[in-house]
Design goal:
The protein is α+β, with helices and mostly antiparallel strands and 252 residues long. The protein folds into two domains: 69 residues, Winged helix-like DNA-binding domain superfamily/Winged helix DNA-binding domain (Arc Repressor Mutant, subunit A); 148 residues, 2-Layer Sandwich (Endonuclease, Chain A), CATH 3.30.870. Helix content is 48%, strand content 20%. It contains nine helices and eleven strands. The strands form two sheets. The protein has an eight-stranded mixed β-sheet, sandwiched between helices. Strand 5, helix 7 and strand 6 form a beta-alpha-beta unit. The chain is elongated, with a radius of gyration of 25 Å. The two termini are 47 Å apart.
Length: 252
């Protein structure tokens, strides 16, 4: 039930399974944990020892055999807060090093939802107008609504504008979903129907991001690939081409 989330929070598969067993059954011996989880006793000893070291389990004092009980789940929040505080202390220095050594030109490839999140964070960091060619409305995708709403809210707070040339075949859905996520910081027009494609291009700052596999009606999974190109000359050229197309496309 919780194993995958616990693994994402830093537990190994065995640790996650054992912790879930402990919170379900309370204190338990190594032998009973082994039976309930189908994990070999020796591996249970290793994993339960790591859980104790991490503060997520504790031995039961006075038990006739080795028994353990879970520490309350709020411990995970405390651990995350501690890690966050440690990161915040060193983040300015890390960011300074990152900026000093960042290449002026380069090409990067991202995939899936996590790749999309990287691009959204980059747009917020840059804080500049985003020009889109072949828009599919993926930021207003109803299947990724919470991500879209938080992103749009932050762009509005930072006064980031969007100029978008949508594909004509998503016209009704795009307009409806923009209203759903309350995106008002956008001007948009529509490409002629014969120029609809399976790709999307975003231009912002010195970046050009090209998406393949993006769709309004599908979740942003591994099928989405994003090619991010960093070049001021390239981005300026794409913006010029965008302005040419914008003047020749139908207004909303």
């Amino acid at each position: 039930m919780f194993e995958l989330t616990l693994q994402e929070l830093g537990l190994s598969p065995n640790e996650a399974r054992i912790y879930e067993t402990l919170i379900e059954f309370g204190e338990a011996s190594v032998s009973s944990i082994s039976k309930k989880t189908n994990i070999h006793r020796r591996n249970v000893y290793d994993a339960i020892g790591r859980l104790v070291d991490k503060g997520f389990a504790t031995p039961v004092i006075g038990a006739k055999e080795n028994k353990y009980m879970p520490v309350e789940p709020n411990k995970f929040l405390e651990t995350l807060e501690e890690k966050k505080e440690k990161l915040q202390k060193i983040l300015p220095s890390m960011q300074s090093l990152f900026i000093n050594h960042k290449a002026e030109e380069g090409i990067y490839i991202y995939k899936g939802l996590e790749g999309m999140k990287n691009i959204l964070r980059d747009i917020l960091r840059m804080g500049q107008t985003v020009y889109t060619i072949g828009g599919k409305g993926i930021w207003s995708n109803p299947l990724s609504l919470s991500l879209s709403e938080s992103f749009v809210k932050e762009t509005q707070r930072k006064n980031i504008k969007f100029c978008t040339l949508f594909d004509l075949n998503i016209k009704e859905d795009a307009i409806k979903n923009l209203k759903t996520i309350k995106q008002t910081n956008i001007e948009y027009r529509f490409l002629p129907k014969k120029y609809s494609s399976s790709a999307v291009i975003d231009i912002y700052g010195n970046r050009v991001a090209i998406y393949t596999g993006a769709s309004l009606h599908e979740t942003i999974e591994e099928s989405v690939t994003i090619f991010l190109m960093m070049s001021q000359n390239l981005a300026d050229s794409y913006r010029q081409w965008f302005q040419f197309m914008w003047g020749r496309c139908a207004a909303k």
